[in-house]
Amino acid sequence: MFAFLNERSLEPFCDWEAGLLFFLRAALELRASAPICEIRRDDTFFTNPAFSQRFNHCHFPKDVRALVRQLVFSDRYCATWLPERLSVETDIYECNHPEVELQDESASEAAERKLRNAALEILLFSVADSAFGGVQTVQIKLKAASAAVVSLPNLSNSPDLSRWLSQQHGYYDPDSPAAPRDFQTVLEQAPARFTFTGKLERRFSRCVYLENKTRRFFYVDEGHPGKSAHLEVYSATEDHLGTARIDSGLLDPSTRVKGRKLRW
Known about the structure:
Elements: E1 2-5, H1 16-32, E2 38-41, H2 43-46, H3 49-56, H4 62-73, E3 79-80, E4 93-96, E5 99-102, H5 106-116, E6 122-125, E7 137-142, E8 149-155, H6 158-169, H7 186-189, E9 194-200, E10 207-211, E11 217-220, E12 231-234, E13 240-244, E14 251-252
Parallel strand pairs: 1-2, 1-6, 2-3, 6-8
Antiparallel strand pairs: 4-5, 4-7, 7-8, 9-10, 10-11, 11-12, 12-13, 13-14
Helix pairs in contact: 1-4
């Protein structure tokens, strides 16, 4: 299975900060869920001076900026597809919604792989406020009268990502040597109750969620896998309240650590 960062969706007037943060979140979740999916990017796009100039004007917390830089400028979270390309650089592909032509970019490479192997699972990650935002399935074909059409699942926001991940494997094994991913906990399984804050806790870069009703902050404790897995809970003033169950979010106040503060 492959997922491609759809750099075409980083349009000039889009919210690049939100888009790159979504790409990062998707990469973090899928990387931890390996080997279900490998992520690919177009290194030519991300190493272009025009991208670097725009990126330098994006405002991220210092620690998050470092992670985003690793996402787009290194192979830590995703590799470039160029050395393994199947598409021909000069070939043109047509997309019906949004109605655009594609050439020598991630979406056309994704389409070519699907054309050559229909059984291969391939999806796109796109920016929410782009022309690709909200399009559940992107249909692409080579620009030829008899060319076959391929349909690629397209994820452009956190709820879509959570749904897709939960459809892959939402169950958490209590004997797992790795801490649960967000989609394996109440944080993603109860979207009406919790909202992703757009921020990461500093120690392990886990996503921080806000419980809408109580205004409390929750995140998965990366250091406790398996049967010891739990959520860390903080008050609206960022004071530690204790730990909570990953399946229900039920707080155990006896585990509160006095003086501990939420570190962003």
